[in-house]
Amino acid sequence: QVQLVESGGGLVQAGGSLRLSCAASGRAINSYAMGWFRQAPGKEREFVATIAGTGAVKSYAGSVKGRFAISRDNAANTVYLQMNSLKPEDTAVYYCAASSSTWGPRLLKGYEYWGQGTQVTVSS
User: Fold this and answer.
1) Alpha carbons 45 and 92: distance in angstroms, whole number
2) How distant, in Å, are the alpha carbons of 25, 26, 34, 39, 95 from that of 48?
3) DSSP character for 32?
């Protein structure tokens, strides 16, 4: 079992930045691809970014590419999401997830473990 706890969410003005953290426990995550997803009110949960276990391969949703950066510190068993140039449409609950796949999938069903989420609100 892998337990995931997100932190770092909050209220920020448009154009601002936030850094989300996802702390894992229970198992070392170096063999897991890790992903970030988000869910806005009234919408389905959607893919944001993913990173392979080694950190060598990263993938982003088109809506965040160039603004968000996913990274990981396997020694600390933690994954990060640096979010810059935030927009009101980035407002959502952000979830961290772990996948036993080699490469991080973009589909929700590709992930076995999920955190409880952290709220990000971007004001205009």
Assistant:
1) 9
2) 22, 24, 11, 10, 9
3) S
